[in-house]
């Protein structure tokens, strides 16, 4: 395996989108913990024409989780924190976390609701600065989990914010200071830090850019003053030291590194597929540990092949970049022989028995995947639909995502660095699973069609609904003969009926109304991808002044961070 194996024009073709006058990416390829190639493409700062170099500092979003997880595990190794001791004693102000352990948070089986979804539902804008205190306050007001702790995997950010706070409560040092002293300085990662203050200057930092509706380039940085699930700023040059440390640990035991790469287990013994801040799995038969990251217009991916001692890190400052796809293409070239040997060892019949179809699906063959999919026993649904010879995933409220076949029952999301697969077992419903950066983000099953029934009168639902957990109110109102959900400054959006008392709304919201014993609507349960059944109680009375006041009430307002 040598750099020449890539070919003279290979990298140029992979990064052709990173032009000399726009945003781009930094690339690090590491072999045996040493840089094989470090290179920049495009501009770190468009206004000043500052090129991206291996020393450019990037916000790497959820790649932060592996560093936060390491710090937590390091405290456990030093006897300062018990990974299996519930967090209630450390966080009495967060009752919902009373029985949840650090290990369950590390492996994403806590059941906690996601902080970004909560902030969005509470009305926060993209440009509002989010602080640890804001997130911990929201967590402290939650009165329900998405699911019973330990019963399933769900990728959630809130727990890693709690873990960062746990580090501070145990050591007296914020995550930024602890990681600097315990990790970054010993490893020589001098341009790496957790940025827990939004206005903290960082020399050589890249800005992120996205296209506005009119096609103009706009700065699109995350407004964060929080660290733990995100907040790490680093370079591809510094990441060589991190990769070397994962291969030959310098400040911890080899057992700690092994634990980071060991998937957690659910209560029933099933694997989460996720270690300590790393998604653990296989790519083309080879063991991989990886993670993706995306906040605002930053995108990042870190792909490790521990056995082959090869790793690729790609940090991008534009939301349209596909770093995960590029990392895999680089690995395809550098590890071609290893992939071939793995294919020879693979149990092809066992793989084929789980897939629908034997060849790459096309045309009417795609109809086999169509239908409604949802959580077992849950109310929320997504639709897989066939249009004009193509397959689309259609979540409530849109947008629709085209699914491009990559195998007999696997697909890639066009325009997103995400994939999905359909699985079938004898006598069981079709399974639909989605993945982002190697991490499973959803596991749904086919839902049989339901009888439409007699729709309830739309006036049943009209009213104001209050959430004590968010300290916010929504209004359900009539516009003509149609229902709308009014979220104040977030705007009013139509409620699209799915079944009686169940609706979809723009922004990926699912709405389910609950009735009391007399049959009257008493509450509204609001769900997003990572916040389930958040309860809004219907006000018993509604006066004209309250109704009028709703036009400006819903908190700070608009979109949540991406991941």
Largest sheet: 8 strands, antiparallel, barrel
Q: Please state the overall shape, judged from the principal axes of the Cα atoms.
A: globular
Mean pLDDT: 88
Ranges where pLDDT stays below 50 over 5 or more residues in a row are: 346-358, 544-563
**β-strand amount:** 25-35%
Rounded to the nearest angstrom, the radius of gyration is: 24 Å
Strand arrangement within the widest β-sheet reads 16-17-18-19-20-21-22-23
Per DSSP E runs of 2 or more residues, the count of β-strands stands at 31
Q: How far is the N terminus from the C terminus?
A: 35 Å
The level of helicity is 10-25%
Structural category: alpha+beta
Total helices: the number is 13
Secondary structure topology:
Layout: H1 10-14, E1 25-31, E2 34-41, E3 43-45, E4 50-51, E5 58-59, H2 64-77, H3 102-106, H4 115-121, E6 130-131, H5 132-141, H6 158-171, H7 175-187, E7 193-194, E8 209-211, E9 217-219, E10 224-225, E11 232-234, H8 239-247, H9 254-260, E12 279-283, E13 286-295, E14 298-305, E15 310-316, H10 323-334, H11 336-345, H12 348-352, E16 371-374, E17 382-387, E18 390-394, E19 401-405, E20 410-413, E21 418-423, E22 431-436, E23 439-447, E24 463-467, E25 472-479, E26 482-486, E27 492-499, E28 502-505, E29 509-515, E30 521-527, E31 534-538, H13 544-549
Parallel strand pairs: 6-10
Antiparallel strand pairs: 1-2, 1-15, 3-4, 5-11, 7-11, 8-9, 12-13, 13-14, 14-15, 16-17, 16-23, 17-18, 18-19, 19-20, 20-21, 21-22, 22-23, 24-25, 24-31, 25-26, 26-27, 27-28, 28-29, 29-30, 30-31
Helix pairs in contact: 2-6, 5-6
